[in-house]
Amino acid sequence: MKIQSVTGMHDILPGDQPYFQKVVKAVESITNYYGFSKIETPILEFAEVFSKGVGVATDIVEKETYTFKTKGGDLVSLRPEGTAPVVRSYIEHGMHNLTQPVKLWYLGPFFRHERPQAGRFRQFHQFGFEALGEQNPSIDSQIIQMSYDVLKELSFKNITIQVNSIGDSECRPYFKKILTGYFRSRKSSLCSDCQRRLKENPLRILDCKEEKCQRVKSGAPQIIDHLCENCHSHFKQVLEFLDELELPYTLNPYLVRGLDYYTKTVFEIVENTTEEGKAQGSLLGGGRYDSLAKILGGRDTPACGVAGGIERIISLLKTREVKTVKLAEPKIFLAQLGQLAKRKGLKLFEEFRDAKILVAESFSKDSLKTQLRTADKMGIRWVLIFGQKEALEGFITLRDMETGAQKEIKLDKVVKEMKAKIK
Ligand code: HAM
């Protein structure tokens, strides 16, 4: 048996937890302010949720989703993203009966069988915000503002929001035709993947990272010149809101995103200065998906959302050594000596917990010397020593590790006295 994690999947070790928590805290405070409620969906969904929702011709569904048959014969997928499951849940639980928009947020592990590289893992974590049941463009700008706020809260400075509109079922088919014509006449200059995409979804060629395709792309027609009136007016309003909010956005006429469910607004947020940022790809990506609910079998539900990659954000946080949240550290150590003291010590430890005072211990150790050494290593000043004599006579010895001074405290007074001491 190989003692190593599965390729592309990583442990989040204790040293990384403070970074993780910092991101979670930022997300929680922003979702709370904007009135989003938390939702958790299962890690497994019926495969159709993604093949129908995200699109069979997307890289995600075609190449990257872990799909398998269960023992009961169901075809299921490990979720590669969170939007389709949230929409499935919205339909299943009749959330259209609630006041709209229904604003939901989530955070958890996602799975894509991608080629592992910088910022690209097979198990990674995303947080996401979804506002369902609202078509007003103010929602698009609010989702973009929230995405920006998360990074701002984490002290990111050089970030750019790239925005585009990819139209809807009224204007996109016509644009696809124009685009197909453009690329068909340059077919031999495209990579083999894009030659195939030409048939299935020419928009995806705009997203190709191959240099030869990038060259062809630079002269391609732009969808914003071909939007229908409705999409054009929607996009104009989104940009006006972004201007008002003074958000640092740029128009990227070739931004299409890798998921089929988008309509109208799409956006990505990237770190624009460091090489590291470039290698990682986007930190957050999202957009409007007005047809997804219908595609999944629900009623028409205009919606907009975003998801951010926690590993990518953490990796940049680390390079900048942004101060991380420290886990609360105990200021008291409870050392014990002998069986009776150990027993009574366990109880005392619980009393400290009831009083919400953090106390470190080493109940598995018998030697007082070892325990004092541990307390010293942890940099703890106050050590409570609970020996046989103390346990029998109902007191405890408090040792100040800085001065070496000791004093006795009655057992029933110890929690109160220590609370005052560590204030
Ligand atoms: P996405 O662009 O596929 O969008 O992923 C969102 C973010 O997840 C990316 O910007 C990136 O930070 C992170 N990410 C994606 N794949 C990986 C990977 N293999 N390893 C590490 N991080 C990764 C979505 O998933 C949409 N559901 C977003 C959305 C929500 N659209 C509307 N609502």
Features:
423 residues; alpha+beta; BirA Bifunctional Protein, domain 2; Rossmann fold; eight-stranded mixed sheet; five-stranded mixed sheet; elongated
**Regions with little confidence, pLDDT below 50 for 5+ residues:** none
CA-atom Rg in angstroms? 28 Å
Q: Count every helix, treating DSSP H or I runs of 4 or more residues as helices.
A: 16
Number of strands: 16
CATH 4th-level superfamily of the largest domain: Bira Bifunctional Protein, Domain 2
Structural class: alpha+beta
CATH level-1 class of the largest domain: Alpha Beta
CATH topology of the largest domain: BirA Bifunctional Protein, domain 2
What would a concise description of this structure say?
This protein is α+β, with helices and mostly antiparallel strands and 423 residues long.
Secondary-structure map with pairings?
Elements: H1 17-33, E1 37-38, E2 44-46, H2 47-55, H3 59-64, E3 67-69, E4 75-78, H4 83-92, E5 102-111, E6 123-132, H5 137-153, E7 159-165, H6 172-184, H7 192-200, H8 211-217, H9 229-244, E8 249-251, E9 265-271, H10 275-280, E10 284-288, H11 292-295, E11 303-309, H12 310-319, E12 332-336, H13 339-354, E13 359-361, H14 368-377, E14 382-386, H15 388-393, E15 395-400, E16 406-410, H16 414-421
Parallel strand pairs: 1-5, 7-8, 12-13, 12-14
Antiparallel strand pairs: 2-4, 3-4, 5-6, 6-11, 7-9, 9-10, 10-11, 14-15, 15-16
Helix pairs in contact: 1-5, 5-9
